[in-house]
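DM from R.C. (forwarded with permission)

"hey, sorry to bug you on a friday — could you get me a structure for this? deadline for the figure draft is monday and I only need the backbone to look sensible"
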Amino acid sequence: MYYVNKFLKFFLKDKYRIPLANFYFFVNDWIRKILNTLLKIVPKKYILIGGGNLVKPQIINYDHRFFGPDSFIDENFEIRFKSNSLKGAFLHCIILHLSDKSVERLFSEIFRVLKRGSFIRLWTMDIEKIAEKYIENDTSFLLYETGAFLKTPSWKNNNIKVDNHNLFTYNLCTYTLNEPKNKVRNKIRDVPNIFIGPPKSNQKKVNNLVKEKKFKELSVYLNSLIPSGVSTDGHKNSFTFEEIKTLLELAGFNDVNNSNYLDSRFKPFRKKYLDKKSDSYLYVEARKL
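My reply, with the result:
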C-alpha cells in the first residue's frame, strides 16, 4: 500500500488521494473483521503472537493493534485456550515490546497451552549483531536490514538525525507522537507530523554501555528518556540468545536451538508469512517435551 500511495501522489492531489486511502483502510478493516469472525468456527491448531493483521484458518493471532485489547500482552496475560490444546506457537518480534516479566509470563502461558512434543519458534532483533554493526559504524546495515528506513522520514519532525547512533538506539527503544486512531495508517506513513523513533540520548553513555555489553542497562536508560504521556508500545527491550534460552527453560521448554530463516524443525512453521528474512534477526526454537 505504501508504494501504491507514493505512486498516486504523482497523479492525485491530497484532497482526492487521502479519501481513497481512508476508503481502502475502511474496507480492509471490515474484511479482516468479517474473516476473523467467520474463521472462529475453525478449530485452532497454532497460536501466533504479534502477527499483525494476518488471518489464517487454523491460527489464532494475538495482536492488540488489530484484534483489540484482549490481545494485549502484559504480566497478567492469559491465553484463552485449555492446557495442552495447541500444536505450535510462533512469535513475531513481540518480545522487543515487552518487559522481562511480561516475556516470562508469555512463555509460561504458551508452555501451558501447547501439547507435549510441540514447538515454539520466534524471531527477534539480534542485539549482539546490531551492537557489532554499531561499533563498526555500519550505518547502511542499521538503516536497511533493521527496517529503520521505514520510519526515518518521520524523524525530522522531532529533530532526530538519521545517523549511526540514532539508528542503533531505534532498535532498542522507540515511542510514537501524533499517532492516528487507525494505526494501520502508519503502514503508508501518510500521517502529518507523526513521529516514530528513538528518544534523544547521550552518545558517549550509549557507546560505553555497548562496549561493556550492558544491553539491559542500556534499554532501561533509553526508556527513561521517553517523554511522559506518549505511546510507548514500540521497542523497549533487547535479548541475547542466552537470555531467551534461560527464559524458555524457566517456562519448562527444552532443546532450545539458535535456528535460521525458514529452517524450523516443525514443517508447518516453514512459511514465509511466518518467518521474516533479515541478517539482523535472531531465530530461536524450542520444544515442550
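R.C.: lifesaver. The mean pLDDT is 85.
me: no worries. The longest strand covers residues 114-125.
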